[in-house]
Amino acid sequence: MRLTHLISSTAIALSFATLAHAADPDLTVFDWAGFENQALIEAYVAKNGQMPTYSFFGDDDEAFQKVSNGFKADVAHPCAQMVQKYRDAGLIEPWDVSKIPLYGEIGERYKNSKIFADEGGVWYIPTDGAYTAVAYNTDLVKADQVASLQVFTDPAFAGKISLPDNTDDTWSLALLATGVSDWTNVTDEQFAAAAAWLRLAHANVRTYWADPSELAQLMKTGEVVIAWTWNDGVANLKREGVPVAFQRTPKEGVANWFCGYVNFKDAPGSEEKAYDFINAWLDHGSAKGLLENFGYVHANDVAMKDIPMEELKAADVDPIDGTLLSQVPIDPAMRDRMTQEFEMIKSGF
């Protein structure tokens, strides 16, 4: 779900070339573009002398489709709602947490699902998370105008808003806007109401953004003044001096999410290095690198205690008082239904 760095296509091409030249052939990581950042896995590089080989995806559905069609990697970085699909498809195997010394430092709220851990073992290692909320141009939009998610259907902003081009984030918005903050048991009536609201919002959409770099360009030029987005794009826009704020307490609430790593069955590389990788990710230094480079929080609660609250506030990841829709795992059939409906809405139906 998270294309995290505002990078041009040229930079991506250069990054691929560099990684192909200087990457560890014994470990292939299938990840969101931008996560090939040494600050996240310093201990891996210290032990193995180089970064792993990376292959990238742009969204969770693309990633799942690719591995379902035979792409081979050692580990991948899906968000929580996708883990059941990987399990059902028989693509992953449990992690041996006896080889992951800091597993116990991961917050229980990230682990309390039988989809992630059951009698068969631990299937998922949560690592990173943040919010999906309302970014807005403070020069062109007043704070009181984004006090409600209904701003996305306000005709005054027709052609000036942007929504994510992915199922999970866009449906989290539609459900919140229609009064649903728990998406684990959505009724037919709630689904219909959210879909109807999303059709209204669709009429205002200038474009559905595929990655934060695309959205950043739209917000820099003023083409888009309000967007439903993640922390990282907002943080980068602020660093560039763009007048943007992140509204995380609208009346109806916002979403939060987390992602982590799965261990592929019959993986081509080194199992030992897969554990080197995940242990490096859980190292306390990774939490600082994650916040500074991505604006995200780490799932290792003990590591997060080392980071001052003022730094969390500056990154808009400090705790908030307000309604939250947590993007935890949902029934794959419901998620498929959401995906199909979203594609129809984008097509104008």
Automatic annotation (TrEMBL):
InterPro entries: SBP
Signal peptide: 1-22
One Pfam family of this chain: SBP_bac_8
Keyword annotations of the record: Signal
PANTHER family: SPERMIDINE/PUTRESCINE-BINDING PERIPLASMIC PROTEIN, SPERMIDINE_PUTRESCINE-BINDING PERIPLASMIC PROTEIN
Protein name according to UniProt: Polyamine ABC transporter substrate-binding protein
Organism: Cypionkella aquatica
Classification of source organism: Bacteria, Pseudomonadati, Pseudomonadota, Alphaproteobacteria, Rhodobacterales
